[in-house]
Amino acid sequence: MPYNEFERCQMHPFLVLPKLSRGDQVAVISPSAGLPGLFPWVQELGLRRLREVFALEPVEYPTTRRLNAPLEARARDVLAAFANPAHKAVFASIGGTDQLRLLKYLDPAVFLAHPKPFFGFSDSTHLHLFLWNLGIPSYYGGAVMTQLAMPGHMHDFTVQSLTNALFHAGEVEIAAAAGYTDEASDWANSATWQAERRLDANEGWHWDGTADGAGRLWGGCVESLLAQVAAEKYLPSTAALAGSVLYLETSESMPPPWVVAYLLIGLGERGWLNHFQAILVGRPKAWDFAQPLTKAQKAVYCQQQRETVVKTVRAYNAHIPIVQNIDFGHTDPQLMLPSGQVARVLGSEHRIFLTY
C-alpha cells in the first residue's frame, strides 16, 4: 500500500464531523425536485423508515413538498436546515435537474459555521461538491424517496451502509451486494408501488489495473458533473484535487457511452486523470420506464459503458486502478460513498476500504 499517497491525500484539510445518536433530529429538504408534493405517500414511507429503522426524528422544510419552488426559497431552506443546531444531519428527498442553479444563493459561511453530514445523490452531486470545496464531508446516497422508501422493505445492504455513515466511525472494507435491481415502481399506481422489487444476481466488480491507490473521494453523477465542468464556477483547483479518488455513476437518463467518454476526456485534458489515485464507477442503471431494456440489452449497455471508461481513462493514465459495477448510484441496494473521506483501493488484492 503506498502510504505516502495516503498521507498526501490528507494535505487538503477536511473537517471531522460528529456521528449521530439514536433519537437525534435530522432535516429533510428538496434542493432539487419537490416530488414529495406529488407523491406524498412515498415521502411518508421514507420518513417512517427514518423513525423506525434508524430511530431518527425527521423535520421537513417548507419547500420540501412544494413543486417548482423558486430557487431562492429552496436555498433558504437549505441554509436554515444546516444552520439549525438541533439538526444533526440533512437528507435530500430526491434528486432533480436544476440544483446547479441553486448554488449561487448559498452562503458558504453558514455551512462552515454549522457543518453536518448531508445525504443525497444524483442531482445532489452539486451540493456534495459545494461542501467538498469547503472541506465538509458528505455521503453520496440515501435519499428519502428512493432508498429509505424502498417498496416492501429496505435492503439490508443499504441499511448497513447507512448505519455505518450515520453512527459508526473508522475504516470499513466493502463488498459487492449479492443481488441488485435497476427497475423502478410506479409511484402513481397505489395498487403496485409497494410491491417488493425482484433482485437480479450481481456479477460483482470489474477491475482494470493492479496498482494500489488512496485518496479523498470526489465525484458524483456523470450528467451533473458535465454541467459542473461546463459552468466551471464550482470546480476545485487541480492542487486541491491532487491525490483524490474519482467516483462516477450515470442516472436514469441512461446516457450513451460517448457522454461518459466526453466527461472523462474533459477531465483528462485538464490533467486530472493523472492526479486521481483510483476511479470507482457505479453500476449503470440500464432500465427506465421510457427505456425498458431486456436483460440482454442491459448487459450490452453496461458492457459498452465499462469498455468506454477503460479505453478513455487509459489514453491518459495507464496505471491507476479502475473498479466498475460498484453498488452506488441509481441502482439498489445502495452503498453510501463518503465524499471527502479517504478511500483505499487495492488493485493488487481486489479490495476496497472506505472511511466513515
Give an overview in words.
By secondary structure, the protein is an alpha/beta fold. The chain folds into two domains: 3-8 and 173-355, Glucose Oxidase, domain 1, CATH 3.50.30; 25-170, Rossmann fold. It has eleven helices and 16 strands. The chain has helices spanning 3-8, 40-52, 71-83, 108-113, 125-133, 144-148, 156-167, 222-231, 238-241, 257-269, 295-314; strands at residues 25-29, 57-60, 87-92, 118-120, 138-140, 171-174, 179-180, 200-201, 206-208, 212-221, 245-249, 278-282, 322-326, 337-339, 342-346, 351-355. Helix 8 packs across helix 10 and helix 10 runs parallel beside helix 11 (295-314). The chain starts with a helix and ends with a strand. Mean pLDDT is 95; it is low at 1-11. One of its GO terms (molecular function) is carboxypeptidase activity.
CATH C-level label of the largest domain: Alpha Beta
Biggest sheet: strands side by side, in what order? 6-16-15-10-11-12-13-9
What CATH calls the topology of the largest domain is Glucose Oxidase, domain 1
Uncertain stretches of 5 or more adjacent residues: 1-11
CATH architecture of the largest domain: 3-Layer(bba) Sandwich
Span between termini: 20 Å
Q: Please give the count of helices.
A: 11
Helix content class: 25-40%
User: Class by helix and strand content?
Assistant: alpha/beta
Radius of gyration: 19 Å
Strand % is 15-25%
SSE run: HEHEHEHEHEHHEEEEEHHEHEHEEEE
Globular, elongated, flat, extended or rod-shaped: what is the shape?
globular
Mean model confidence by pLDDT = 95
Structural domain tally:
2
